[in-house]
Amino acid sequence: MSQPHLNSTKAWLVYGFAIVAYISAISQRTSFGVAGIEATERFHASAQILATFSVVQLVVYAGAQVPVGLLLDKFGPRILITCGALLMAAGQAFLAISVNVPMGLIGRVMVGMGDAMVFVSVLKLLPLWFSGSKIPVLTQLTGTFGQLGQLISIFPFHMMLLNAGWSTSFSVMSGFAFATFITTIAFVRNGNGWAGPSHGTHSSRSRIAQALKQPGTRLGFWTHFTTAFMINTFMMTWGYPFLVEGQGLDSALASGMMSIFVVVAVVLGPVLGALTARRAEHRSNYALGIIGLMLAMWAVVLCWPGQAPLWVLIVLMISVAAGGPASVIGFDFARTFNPPRVLGTATGLVNTGGFIGAFITIYVIGFILDMLNKANGSSGVLYNLGSFRIALSFQFVMAALGITFMLIERRKARRYLAEQ
Ligand SMILES: NCCCC[C@H](N)C(=O)NCC(=O)O
C-alpha cells in the first residue's frame, strides 16, 4: 500500500512543531534548576528542601512514564503532547505566583507530569510519519534538539530571572509552554498510519505484559538503565559537589563545565543516529562501548593520586555525557521489537531505566557519604575526595548489574530474531 504522507513535507512540519514542544518541555524541566538561589530566598527554603523540588519532579516524571505510554497507545501522540503542554503552562503559571514551599511543589508536580507526556509522544510520532533509516536518525536528533531547551534555561531564562524577577520569568516560561499548546493543536497530527483511539480490547496490564514479553523492550530498558544512570546521577546531584568539594574546582568553572553535556549531545547524537541506522545489528555494541569508556574514565579519576588535572576531568565529563545519546539506542530497541499498538507503552517502560538507576545510585552514594562521615565521628567534612572515591565507586556495581542484564537480554533478543 502506498503511503505518500511518509517522509512528506507535512511530515517534517508535524515533526518540527512536535520538536518545538519537546524543546519547551526540556526548558520547563530545567528552568527550576537555574533558579536555586532565587527559590531559596522566595520560599525561605533550606538546601534539602530545594533538592526535594528536583527529586519530586523527577519521581513524578519517571512514575508517569508507564501510564503515559498506555495513554499514548490509546489516544495517540497529538492529544498527549497537547495535554503535556497545557499542564506545563499551568504548572509554571502556578509557580510564578507561588509564595511558599507547598505551592511551589504543586507547580513542579504539574510541570513534571506535563513534561512526562512529551518525549515518548514525539518518538511515537516518528514511525507514523517517517520510514526507513530516517526513524533511527530522527530518534537521536529528537534527544539532541531537546538540549536546546536546556540552553534556553541556562541563558535567556536565567538572565530574565536576574533582571525581571521570579514571577515575570516563570510567567514567560508558562507563556512559552502555552504557545506550544496552540502550535500542537494547529499543526501536530497523528498521521494516516494512526489507527484511531483503541477501545479497550486490551487491558493496561495486558499491554504492559505484551511490551515486556518482547526481549527488545527489556534490552531497551537495560540499555537505557546502564547508559543513562551515570549521566543522571552526575547532572542531578553528585557531579557538582564532586567537582567542587572533591576535585577543588572553582564553583563557576564547575557549573560552566556542565555545558559539556549539551555540546556532546549535539555532536554525538547525529553520529550515533547515523551509525544506528546503517548498522542496527551493532547498536548494543555502540552502547556497551560507551559504557566501557565511562567506566574506564571513572576508574582513572577515582584512582588518580590526589585531585585529577582539569583535562582528565573534562575527558571524564565528555565520556559520561556520551551516555545521553547512547541511552537513545534503548528506544530504538523498543521501536524495532514492538508492534505499533504497544509502542508507547514499551517506550515509556524503556524511559524509566536511566531514572530508576539514577535514583538508586544517588541515594546509595549519599548513604555511603553519610556512613563514612559518621565512621569518622562526624568530625571531618562531609564531602571530601577520599569519601567521594569510595561512594562514587558504587557506580561500578550498578554498571555491572546493567551490563549483565544487557548481555542476557541481548542473547534472548538475538534468539528471538533468529526464530522469526
Ligand atoms: N542526546 C541526549 C538525549 C538524552 C536522552 C535521555 N537519556 C532521555 O531518555 N530523555 C528522555 C526525556 O524525556 O528527555
Short key terms for the protein model shown above:
420 residues; mainly alpha; Growth Hormone, Chain: A; 2 domains; globular; binds the ligand NCCCC[C@H](N)C(=O)NCC(=O)O
Protein model, in words:
GO terms for molecular function: transmembrane transporter activity. The chain crosses the membrane at residues 12-29, 49-72, 79-99, 138-158, 170-188, 219-240, 252-274, 286-304, 310-331, 343-368, 388-408. It is found in: Cell membrane; Lysosome membrane. 82% of the residues lie in helices and 0% in strands. Helix 10 packs parallel to helix 16 and helix 12 (260-278) packs across helix 14 (310-321). It has helices at residues 9-31, 36-43, 47-75, 77-97, 101-116, 118-129, 134-164, 166-187, 204-213, 215-246, 251-257, 260-278, 283-303, 310-321, 323-337, 343-375, 385-392, 394-419. The chain starts with 8 loop residues before the first helix and ends with a helix. It is globular and about 70 Å long. The protein is mainly α and 420 residues long. It has 2 domains: 1-189, MFS general substrate transporter like domains (Growth Hormone, Chain: A, Up-down Bundle), CATH 1.20.1250; 204-420, MFS general substrate transporter like domains (Growth Hormone, Chain: A). The ligand NCCCC[C@H](N)C(=O)NCC(=O)O is lined by residues 119, 143-144, 146, 228, 265, 269, 324-325, 327-328, 351, 354.
